[in-house]
Amino acid sequence: MLLPKDLYYTENHEWIFVEGKKGTIGVTEHAQKEMGDIVFVELPEIGDDFEQFDSFAVIESVKAVSDVYLPVGGKVIAINQDILEQPELVNDEPFESGWLVEIEISNLDELESLMDDEAYAHYLEEGK
Prior knowledge:
With 128 residues, this protein is of the alpha+beta class. The chain has helices at 29-35, 81-85, 89-92, 117-125, and strands at residues 8-9, 14-19, 22-27, 38-42, 49-50, 55-61, 65-69, 74-79, 101-105.
């Protein structure tokens, strides 16, 4: 399974790539496989503020509807318009063109509660 080393991961199978105070967020390869074929994605509005672990998006697949949670708190500064028209990008490229939103991180210290790639791999091995 693909686990990029430069990301942080959550127990709910979201990832965040951090550049300064900007965070790009998506769901992991594990999450998209569990969901099955994704048919619809609902994203927040630019400017929306969220706390850490708030639900900020909804992904609908052929199997179920799933909430997506923000790994850290922040303000939405960009959304991936492409996945609104092509939700299957989340399945095809979860770590590349399948990203969901970019945020301005409100508290970088919240990253400390997330997992690196090795800890997340171990978490997956435990069957979470």
